[in-house]
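step: validate -> pass
step: tokenize input -> pass
step: predict -> running
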Amino acid sequence: MNRFGTRFSVTTFGESHGQAIGCVVDGVPAGLEIDESYIQNELDKRKPGTTKFATQRKESDKVQILSGVFNGVSTGAPIALAIFNENQKSNDYENIKSLFRPAHADFTYFKKYGIRDYRGGGRSSARETAARVAAGAIAKKLLEKFGIKVKSGIFAIGGVEALDVDFEYAPISEIFALDKTKEEAQKEAVLRAKEAGDSVGGCVFVKISNAPFGLGEPLYDKLDAALGGALMGINGVKAVEIGEGVNASKLRGSQNNDQMDEKGFLSNHAGGILGGISTGMDIDLKIHFKPTPSIFIEQQTQNEQNESVKFSLKGRHDPCIAIRGSVVANAMASLVIADMLLLNAACTLENLKKIYSKQ
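step: predict -> pass
step: emit ->
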């Protein structure tokens, strides 16, 4: 499937070394201001080649709006966005075109389809996530209308965890660090791995504020399940925590329960979701990225003829995918909330009456 979402949906297209990548965003309400510079600003956060902590592939990631916008507002028609690739170096992959790179999707794509694009992973490349960020920018413009904010940043890299969380500091940090006192240690962890030809994993923290209660569809389209699925669908993500996450398994009910008084919840161990439905509290998410599988240390693998071989990788790769992945996680969370917002708008008879009484 290349389509995500129900009411607010995104279909992405393109490969890492193809002509272009892009997406079609459907279900955007007519009349929403679509600011191309805002979309570009979101893409620039994820853009490669900007710091020594990211891949040195140089791409402007210039977005082009092809349809669905007139005079700066959405028309209600599908919005098509295109980002043309400018800096492919396909020759870097000639020596591995018949090999399966460890921890990549090469093996599974080949076994499933009988064919694969070995140039940077083709469709499985994280390059595709630029399209998700572009779509997420439109989702964020919708969420702004309801005062909903989605913030994100780096919580941990290589086991160096934030002690404090400052979502206002993250946007001005080279690595989107949430804790300025841990930023240098996190940077050092990335650079040490990079100098060794290796890579390092990391954890992203996403906070969704001012989301209304009632988002989520029990039983089979729960908000936490939708968020988990969307975030697990990002390249390199191996785990997603909501609220206390794995720590909840170590607690007693008396410690984990969010008690209430006349003003509302007294804590937020649930991370803003109960029974698959938003509570109105902040929705707290931690997304864990594995180390970048593209490393420059000699490795052993198998080729398409089932032979054991050793190889060394070439190319330009992120030493820590969590850094740019934090921008993608923000976009995917925004898309889920936008979709759930539209689904929730027509979930009661009273809401339907309000909508159609104006016609």
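step: describe -> The longest strand covers residues 149-157.
step: cleanup -> pass
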